Amino acid sequence: MDAPEDIYSTKILEVVASMPQSEAFEGADGSATKNSKLCGSKIHVDLNVSGEKITRYGQTVEACLLGQAAASVMAQNAVGLTKSDIEAIRDEMLAMLKEEGPAPKGIWADLEVLYPVKDYKPRHTSMMLVFEATLTAMAEALKNK
User: Which domain, by its residues, includes 23?
Assistant: First the structure.
């Protein structure tokens, strides 16, 4: 197992640094905020949908570096995705963290930087916040359509 400082790699810093500007916004079809009681991380998501797909995505991230990395990858890829797409990547992340599953591939390949954190269970919640917030916002948006 890596030492705790080893999980904060240069690669994670690069993923966080590439986070696009995607602030929360007025007029969202769906919104959600998720918090981690353990570490204090918080992520708020606003999104708009057309049909089943996300057409606009914004987030406010007050999270540790690991949560920021997951949020960065989500912000880069959310537009054009469906609820099923978000559920699938959430499930891949859970499998990677909890069941020794492989790191995500394709548009989600940058999430591989979080693979070493699988051995640090207290850190899992902060990485999963963005997926849960996005799914909750999606459910609200689809209900309102």
Answer: 4-144
- Number of structural domains found in the chain: 1
Q: Strands 53-62 and 30-35: what pairing? A: unpaired
Q: For tokens 């492989």, name the residue.
A: 102
Tens of pLDDT along 51-108? 999 999 999 999 988 999 999 999 999 999 999 999 999 999 999 999 989 999 999 9
What CATH number does the domain containing 10 carry? Answer: 3.90.1010.10
Give the separation between CA 93 and CA 127, rounded to whole angstroms.
9
Q: Rounded distance, CA 75 to CA 83, Å?
A: 15
CA dist list (Å): 34 to 26, 41, 57, 111, 127: 18, 8, 16, 19, 11
**Overall pTM > 0.70:** yes
